[in-house]
Amino acid sequence: MAIYQSPSYPIETRVDDLISRMTLTEKVGQLNQKLYGWEAYQKTGSDITLTETFTDEVRRWNGIGVLYGLFRADPWSARTYENGITASESPKLANQIQKYIIENTRLGIPALLSEESPHGHQALDGTMIPTNIGVGSTWNPQLMKQMYQHIAKEMRSRGAHLGLISTLDILRDPRWGRSEECFGEDPFLAASFTRAAVDGLQGGSFEKLAGSDRIGAILKHFSAQGAGEGGINAAPAIIGERELRDIHLPAMKAGSEAGAAGCMAAYNEIDGVPCHANKGLLTGILRDEWGFKGIVMADGVAIDRLEMQTGSYVKAAATALDAGVDVSLWDESFTTLEEAVRTGLVTEEDIDRSVRRVLSLKFSLGLFENPYVEEESITTSNDNETVRQANIQVARESVVLLKNENSQLPLQSKHKRIAVIGPNADSIYNQLGDYTSTQKAGKGTTVLEGIKKIAPNGTEIVYAKGCGIREGSPEEIREAIEKAKDADVIVLAVGGSSSRDFDIRFDTNGAAIPGEQPADMDCGEGMDLADLNLGGMQETLIEELGKLGKPMVGVVIQGRPHAIGTLVESCQSVLCAWYPGQEGGTAIAEILFGHVNPSGKLPVSIPRSSGQLPVYYNHKDLGKLLPYRNMEATPLFSFGYGLSYTTFNMNDCQLSRDSISLDELNEGATVTLEVTIENTGAVDGAEVVQLYRYDAEASVTSRIRELKGFKKLPLKSKEKQSLSFSIGKEELSIWNNKMEYVVEPGLIQWFVGGNSHATMKANLQITP
Description:
The protein is an alpha/beta fold. It contains 23 helices and 26 strands.
């Protein structure tokens, strides 16, 4: 038995032994993720066979390093329940793939199977949870850690090893179509959920994944993709190092500290340097500064895009490899790495560096000892009530109550006829977001279905679509008016949609091509908007229904914060539900009828208009608010905002001491901030206590507020609790005028409350 085949040796020794036996071709093959995974098999009835496309790729490299999207099923892959792989069929196919590779290659190196999982596994029978912008609204990382554990178990049982999950993008411009993939606009919030994602998917560092029911987390996108100029996908991020470090790096730093298996480089450039060519980012910061040990994966065909800068695919490959990219994704460029070695653009030692990272991950996953999965033990939400209940809870906590005039909600039993109107009232795909798998008929619950299920007995429910997301007709609006005119209350479900269909055309990386999308799709990858107003005839529908003088409840299902001023003015109450997932209809109905008290808080500011962007809360302090001549500069709803059916009171905000020295902080000393919170209302609820910092004396200009702590606290009616935040060197450090991360002497102000406008204040003096 060769050393690399023996588990008695340390992983590092096994990797060295295996690399010493590999040809250059075999090494390059480990760095290529060239195939679209769904092209590796053909399904006819119940018969599943491997294709020549797959076997040719194995023969080309004498192995396969990573295979992407074997189980992906959506309009781009064109896989459905007729020709795709169901949950019960997945282990068999995964084992076929591994068996062929192991038995038909010289060294028998198993492949890594990587799968999309930005909000659940993008595969037939995969659990679809709320998209990240809704996840951020829960302000509950512990809940999400538990949900990600379910997703990991589900994916690993099917044979997957790596989950590609969006955690790193910070939402700075809601015109961006991929806003739904962000946890919000704040780096601290994103870092908290990134840790939860890694802990949930992996259960710790990737180096301890062998024999587990977890998967390796590939965090995307690194870095600053959410700051694209004009809100355009993959556009340049015109930011400097301070903005990069303040806003866009903390989430990946948290992921690195949690032991993430890898990250995916972003499409955008930062100050003129594409991320895939950015050695300072991918090597200097990620590896040298943070000590990251995982792999860096390219985004789809992103290395090929470097060809227009470098002049050839060979030079593009050499540039990306030198920068720190280890594994390609569908690129032609990385297939030329042997030529890059022959022509002296890179050395074989450069190749070995990345191969070592890929092989180390395979050994850490235990693939050489256990390349196969049990074919009878599948975990899906279809037959797992625990997973379904967890998914419902995420959806419940993701809903944000924006307005509740005169306590209109929860709806009362006196409402005997309810009109449910709107393009998002009865469309399950409009609730699921982009990167959504083909759904089995009848799976999931729409808003209309949830209301019908939960409304009190004897309540009549009538429905009309009213209009589409981007299209509509006066006839549809007239039908809605007719249905609503005799109702006691109108529930109006509007917003956006990332729903794809099988008629649209896709770019080479799977993004929908603007102008060729279905009428209802106005969000998701490639679907950037110039105008954030609700699309099509939705605002006309809102205005016409408002003329009836009926009580109206607005429910906004969306992947980005739209400008919803018309809806807020017309409705007495408004819920923001984002894309609430397959259980979203149930969760929304439970909130509407008071079975659940809403506890969500906005992870992003909601603008009044596209023209006032940016409106994120943590802007630089200008000394005073500078308004526009024709509009308020403040957002319609601010970061951290969210109402409840009960009321909360916070007081007794105190620091354990009012000053601390730099020497004490550098030695690990901390200050404790304590606060008391009471549920002063008549119903049980949960409040998010938020801690913000303002640096009143600094060598660089300060942000008006910076989130530095939060805790979601359930409280029964009249219950009172105290909680504390620990403030130490990390919470007090800034990037100073020399770009050093240090604590500076001076006054730091701390604000505590239920949103970013918190007013309770405590002062901490940092002494030299």
